[in-house]
């Protein structure tokens, strides 16, 4: 893991030393220097409890005098947790521009004191500074954002009885859990609205039949009327801090 609270990051000839994670501020700039593009490989990174999740970033800066360096390359959470870049590489596509690409590895496997914690889930911002040969600079400090969310899972949908008599009651169950970055386990996600969806045999799309709220342990249970053969599944849209999830469906035939 490469999250730290005190470290130096250098690309080109500019070095940035961070002793404490700074609060997010507005972008700052001087002169005609600009970032012409900043792209993330993902708009949302859903992180579980074991496998590291990669996020790649590419940024291009331009100034009439040319770009001397690009530095910082930090990803910062709203609660000031910092992720530093891995393996930055920079090129000069023209005499006026510099293009840098780098990556981050996000995880919560508890092998490092600074691994992800639940409080850090949500919107992160990119903190990067480009410096030009004429003294102009541009600091990205709030405008480039990405979501880092806790990974969610829905257990395989169970619908009974199978088969079912047309017009009779069908009981559908499931369970919603999400990654707990503090304990490195998956725990039940309580009080969440989850859609029960149905796809009729021969159809290509699912339709939401009703919305069910998870209990204190993240469990789902409801009844519905069986009017056609098809597949039932649960779908969770996610929250600002937790990713979306879709359960494997359970096919039920009429008899």
Provide the succession of SSEs.
EEEEEEEEEEEEEEEEEEEEEEE
Percentage of residues in helical conformation: under 10%
Dominant shape = elongated
> Pairing-aware structural class of the strands and helices?
mainly beta
Number of E-type strands: 23
Distance between the termini: 55 Å
Rounded Rg: 24 Å
> Are there runs of 5+ residues with pLDDT below 50, and where?
1-24
- Provide a count of the helices: 0
Overall mean confidence score, pLDDT:
90
The major beta sheet can be summarized as: 7 strands, mixed
What portion of residues belong to β-strands? over 45%
Structure write-up:
The chain has 255 residues and is mainly β. The protein is 0% helix and 55% strand. It is built from no helices and 23 strands. It has strands at 7-11, 14-18, 28-30, 34-40, 44-47, 53-62, 67-77, 82-84, 86-91, 97-106, 122-132, 137-140, 145-150, 152-154, 158-160, 169-180, 185-188, 193-200, 207-213, 219-225, 230-236, 245-246, 250-252. Strands 3, 5, 7, 8, 11, 12 and 13 form a 7-stranded mixed sheet that branches. A hairpin with a 4-residue loop joins strand 11 and strand 12. The protein is elongated and about 80 Å long.
Features:
255 residues, five-stranded antiparallel sheet, 23 strands, 0% helix, 55% strand, elongated
List the topology elements.
Layout: E1 7-11, E2 14-18, E3 28-30, E4 34-40, E5 44-47, E6 53-62, E7 67-77, E8 82-84, E9 86-91, E10 97-106, E11 122-132, E12 137-140, E13 145-150, E14 152-154, E15 158-160, E16 169-180, E17 185-188, E18 193-200, E19 207-213, E20 219-225, E21 230-236, E22 245-246, E23 250-252
Parallel strand pairs: 5-13
Antiparallel strand pairs: 1-2, 3-12, 4-6, 6-10, 7-8, 7-11, 9-10, 11-12, 11-13, 14-16, 15-16, 16-17, 16-20, 18-19, 18-21, 21-22, 21-23
